[in-house]
Amino acid sequence: MPEYAVPTIPTTITVHLGRPDEPARNVEVPFIEYIKNVASSEIYPTWPESAIRANILAQISFALNRIYTEWYRSRGYDFDITNSTQYDQYFVENRDIYENISQIVDDIFNNYVVKGESISPYFTQYCNGTTSTCPGLSQWGTVELANQGMTPYEILQHYYGDDINIVSNAPVEDNIPSYPGVPLRLGSAQEEVRTIQRQLNRIGDNYPAIPKIDPTDGIFDLQTDAAVRKFQEIFNLPVDGIVGKATWYKIKYLYNSVKNLAELTSEGITLSEADRIFATVLREGDSGNQVRVVQYYLAVIGYFDNRFPFIAPDGYFGPETANAVRTFQQAYGIEPTGEVNRDTWNKLTEIYRSTISNLPEEYLSASDEIYPGRHLTLGMEGDDVGTLQRFLTVISANDPAIPQVTVTGIFDEPTEQAVLEIQKGRGLPLTGAVGPLTWARIVALYQQYVNQD
Asked: Which helix (H) or strand (E) is 167 found in, with range?
């Protein structure tokens, strides 16, 4: 079953105490305390409970929409939301909280509104309904509806449509920025690549000059590179094909805009648009190719650095792998959890690339047998592609099932077909791309045939 990047409740939220461009302090507060503050600032504790609950659900969903879409961060700000009612909702630092509002927030702070089949928090626009009106919820209007006997859900349906739903008891987690922490480029392979592939394809519906990417498999290939470059050209970014922080958040900003994610008319994000093929965290008990990749990197690093124990890449995240990960984390100043999260993965790939770039002289003759640190895909060029083709010529000479290739240094279709044949029946994804596991398998076959001669 695929994993899904569904919204969670953040432990904290960063509030800008003013309008977006106004010089003002930022304060980081627990999310639950933020909602209590907003509710105590926006509505009255004497209102009927159904009206209070409907308003609080709207306030929670509004804030979560700002966080989930990174509405301000995608525009270069360093906060999640403002306290300006012109843009967001009212927050008064250090204000007193009404007791009944506090109790209701404690009960429903991890519930929020979604629209139709979307999983993203709905942009629950609202206004007070007296001095200001808007297409969304009327705060004073909720009182009248509650007095008519409507439930909180019915009140919200009245304003936002019959197709809304309430997500209940969402998990609470730290709010981690979506930017992966390292630039993505040709040869990268991870869920964040898949994210930008999907987002660029949707942006391309509105900007047809951006070429489509197919498949959206999380491998940064030449199609992805071309789409990134065209996006950068259209939106006046340096055209380098690299998705650094500026390009990442510009893509996010345009994606939010074309899907109207911060509007009542939002397209929303469906479950199928949020599925993952790469796990967020790997931990003891997990198994599969992602685990095997981590083990491969640790094995190569450990071979050249005796601080780290050697582990066999067997695809099972057992106690030995967890211990090796903890040892690695301790060596590089990361909390030694024994789990591979984004920070540990980024450091692991950084140290792997540094290791293979600085091999001791006595190992240089065999250095081409070590995975070069980037996925190789159709159309790519370079010495590592030539090395791959050299291995494949030996394999094809000994195995008639493997198509013959010519050593050109250009990853052409015969090379892709040879790779696909090797991937078949060996538990490797049939991508035609050469990542660390496919590379290791090709090298093993190459060594087998060379050593038997």
From this structure: strand 164-167
